[in-house]
Amino acid sequence: MADDIDRANELADEHLNHSLRAARAAAVTATSAGVPGECEECGEDMPRLIDGRCGYCRDGRGPRSRT
Ligand SMILES: [Zn+2]
Asked: What is the whole-number distance in angstroms between the Cα of residue 9 and the centre of ligand 1?
């Protein structure tokens, strides 16, 4: 009985670790592909942010001006 519970816990831990690894890998992929949001540097709402910054800030060009 106790062995069954230990085994179930082991399996659950393995599954959790695997899920965490998969989620972390997915997060890295999503970050390198860019995520929508507000740029940390210029504050513009951009469809693709990498490391929290838009392409303009990363390139050092500055955001396109909105008039
Ligand atoms: Zn920016």
From this structure: 46
